[in-house]
């Protein structure tokens, strides 16, 4: 016999102790029932069917079989059809976006490479090179790049994920309750799949440039008539452009129309970069949202329950607890459970669907709601009101009976096996909720008063959690003055008082409270649960922000590569403009206007495409999570600002190199 530390799976508030003993198999009878744990050498989705077959063979009730779903999800195995559909759809969307982004980046590089060697390929045609040979030269270039880049990419990828695992292993152990660690395991299949995807990406990226290279004729290449085919209509611009922005803007716009193919390539590159960034940002924000929906929403460390029979003693105890050295924050909450009747038109959408099947629950066109009324102490209410945009003075006026209504609820729909976030009620600020106490045995209702809605919010104050009510329930926040006004009449349900604490050392604070040996208070420590939830969110943030950072770097590299190369191919054009008298100031203005045109055009295409992909991601997650679709306006704002900054920076960087060129040398340049 011995003693061990408290296991992580035993809550700190457990009323007893966990005892671990030994099962002697030799002492078991034929009819004795035991719990058996099964470990599999290879985890496959067929394990669910295998378990049922095993149970049937051994006359075991299949309902008694439990699966370690938390662990199986790491293997991508689940018996939840909705979750499986979510995982597959998300994988397909994100892989598609990444492949398209990679293809565009490599394609632009090869397309520009072909443009740079335009005359060279034409000269090869003049000395007898066949179309097939010119096409194969581009494919060969892609093969050489693949032979160099694929091994380097695999090594960097393995090293990167190894460093990531080393960094997050401690967080994983705390967040997921695992004793093991994540390690990098290299399998031949994973290497082959990575190589196959890379080879396919390079092939797709080089195919169109290779076909274009094979069609270059000697005469067209030497005369350089393919890239630039001009008519008056082609380069025609609006008269307002010159009047509003000046001749530099008009020349810049004509340049874009004159070099239409390069212009389209650059815009396409920008569009892909915008879509990549916003799609991944939306994916990450949706993942964090789903994680938050599946959590309990614990926002405190310790809950201290109090007996309401002696209010003065409770007040003294609160002041004593608040003087404890590790307490960092607190709120005092009083709870009262009441009821109300809500007009049919104002109830939750899910209840509207239920009414289509059964309207008997309605009474005079109203639906019964369960209400949890919470009052906060003065300091906490003032901070909360400011955070949600409510008028504090209005809330503390006992004559008005005002309240903040938390109109967003989260619940788990067991029948559909999904988490749902929905609006609990559809009312307007200024409307009132008539609170009543109902004796369900006698059906007698006691009117408490009408509470005016001062504000709606989806934010929960410290101590109030987002779980437990479900559809048909509502949390409202009032001041202590309003709570006293509501409870002047005889209440059927007793008011509960709680002190919620945050502490720098929750275990020590709990012990200090228990050492007071007060029989009318009880400390419930949920620090471990809160810590686990916060660690899960932190763990998700490491992956998501790392993913965003990687995609952002790819997007910036894509834009810089495309624009800088495009500018370098226009040396002769810029030299001609300078020879005709364009000043450095005018040249910079022209470049800036071109950057603006690039940015506007790319946003006109990129934003709508991004919104479509965001919606597809939202619909994909809808198999397991239901919540309102919303656009990530902050990410969209970042994308808009970043596009113009990056485009202008890239063009100024590339044009600064062109400025150093001698005009005569640039005019003598052979390639466009």
Short description:
The chain is α+β, with helices and mostly antiparallel strands and 672 residues long. It has 21 helices and twelve strands. It has helices spanning 47-57, 69-72, 81-116, 118-126, 131-176, 188-214, 218-223, 239-245, 247-258, 260-294, 311-322, 349-357, 378-388, 392-395, 480-486, 506-514, 527-568, 571-579, 584-621, 633-659, 663-667, and strands spanning 302-306, 327-343, 366-376, 402-406, 408-413, 418-423, 432-439, 444-457, 473-479, 496-503, 521-525, 625-626.
Account of the protein in words:
This protein is α+β, with helices and mostly antiparallel strands. The protein has four domains: 35-75, no CATH class; 117-226, no CATH class; 236-295 and 528-672, no CATH class; 302-525, no CATH class. The protein has helices spanning 47-57, 69-72, 81-116, 118-126, 131-176, 188-214, 218-223, 239-245, 247-258, 260-294, 311-322, 349-357, 378-388, 392-395, 480-486, 506-514, 527-568, 571-579, 584-621, 633-659, 663-667; strands at 302-306, 327-343, 366-376, 402-406, 408-413, 418-423, 432-439, 444-457, 473-479, 496-503, 521-525, 625-626. Strands 7-8-4-9-3-2-10-1-11 form a nine-stranded mixed beta sheet. The chain has a three-stranded mixed beta sheet with strand order 5-6-12, with helices on one face. A hairpin with a 4-residue loop joins β5 and β6 (418-423). α3 (81-116) crosses α6, α3 (81-116) packs antiparallel against α10 (260-294) and α10 packs antiparallel against α20. The mean pLDDT is 77.
């Amino acid at each position: 016999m011995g003693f061990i530390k408290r296991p992580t799976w035993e809550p700190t508030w457990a009323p007893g102790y966990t005892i671990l003993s030994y099962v002697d198999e030799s002492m078991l009878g034929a009819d004795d029932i035991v719990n058996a744990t099964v470990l599999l050498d290879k985890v496959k989705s067929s394990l669910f069917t295998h378990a049922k077959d095993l149970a049937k063979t051994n006359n075991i009730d299949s309902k008694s079989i439990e699966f370690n779903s938390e662990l199986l999800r790491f293997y991508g195995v689940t018996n939840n059809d909705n979750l499986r559909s979510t995982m597959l759809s998300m994988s397909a969307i994100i892989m598609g976006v990444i492949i398209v982004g990679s293809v565009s980046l490599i394609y632009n590089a090869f397309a520009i490479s072909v443009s740079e060697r335009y005359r060279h390929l034409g000269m090869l045609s003049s000395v007898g090179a066949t179309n097939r040979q010119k096409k194969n030269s581009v494919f060969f270039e892609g093969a050489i790049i693949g032979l160099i880049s694929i091994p380097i990419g695999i090594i960097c990828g393995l090293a990167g994920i190894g460093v990531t695992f080393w960094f997050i292993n401690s967080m994983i152990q705390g967040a997921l309750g695992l004793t093991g660690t994540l390690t990098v395991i290299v399998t031949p299949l994973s290497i082959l799949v990575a190589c196959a995807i890379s080879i396919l990406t390079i092939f797709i990226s080089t195919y169109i440039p290779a076909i274009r290279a094979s069609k270059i004729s000697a005469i067209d290449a030497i005369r350089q008539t393919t890239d630039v085919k001009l008519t008056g209509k082609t380069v025609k611009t609006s008269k307002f452009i010159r009047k509003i922005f000046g001749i530099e803007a008009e020349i810049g716009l004509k340049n874009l129309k004159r070099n239409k193919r390069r212009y389209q390539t650059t815009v396409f590159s920008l569009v892909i970069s915008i879509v990549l960034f916003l799609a991944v940002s939306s994916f990450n924000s949706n993942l964090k949202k789903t994680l938050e929906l599946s959590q309990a929403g614990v926002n405190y460390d310790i809950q201290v329950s109090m007996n309401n029979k002696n209010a003065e003693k409770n007040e003294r105890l609160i002041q004593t607890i608040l003087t404890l050295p590790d307490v960092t924050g607190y709120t005092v909450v009083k709870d009262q459970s009441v009821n109300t009747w809500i007009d049919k038109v104002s109830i939750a959408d899910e209840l509207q669907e239920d009414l289509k099947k059964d309207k008997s629950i309605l009474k005079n066109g109203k639906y019964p709601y369960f209400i949890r009324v919470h009052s906060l102490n003065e300091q906490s209410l003032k901070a909360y009101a400011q955070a949600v945009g409510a008028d504090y003075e209005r809330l503390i006026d006992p004559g008005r009976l005002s309240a903040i209504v938390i109109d967003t609820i989260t619940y788990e729909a067991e029948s559909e096996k999904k988490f749902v976030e929905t609006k609990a009620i559809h009312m307007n600020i200024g409307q009132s909720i008539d609170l009543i106490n109902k004796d369900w045995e006698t059906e007698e209702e006691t009117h408490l008063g009408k509470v005016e809605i001062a504000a709606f919010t989806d934010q929960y104050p410290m101590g109030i959690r987002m779980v437990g009510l479900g559809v048909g329930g509502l949390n409202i926040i009032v001041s202590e003055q309003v709570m006293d006004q509501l409870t002047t009449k005889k209440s059927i349900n007793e008011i509960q008082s709680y002190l919620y604490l945050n502490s720098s050392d929750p275990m020590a604070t709990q012990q200090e409270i228990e050492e007071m040996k007060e029989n009318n208070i009880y400390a419930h420590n949920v620090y471990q649960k809160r810590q686990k939830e916060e660690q899960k969110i932190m763990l998700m943030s490491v992956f998501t922000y790392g993913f965003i950072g990687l995609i952002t770097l790819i997007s910036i590299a894509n834009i810089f590569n495309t624009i800088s190369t495009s500018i370098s191919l226009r040396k002769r054009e810029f030299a001609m403009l300078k020879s005709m008298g364009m000043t450095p100031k005018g040249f910079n203005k022209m470049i800036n206007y071109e950057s603006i045109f690039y940015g506007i055009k790319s946003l006109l295409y990129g934003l709508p495409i991004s919104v479509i992909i965001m919606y597809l991601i939202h619909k994909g997650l809808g198999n397991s999570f239901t919540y309102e679709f919303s656009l990530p306006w902050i990410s969209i704002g970042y994308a808009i600002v970043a596009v113009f900054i990056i485009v202008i920076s890239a063009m100024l960087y590339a044009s600064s190199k062109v400025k150093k060129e001698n005009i005569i040398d640039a005019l003598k340049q052979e390639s466009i």
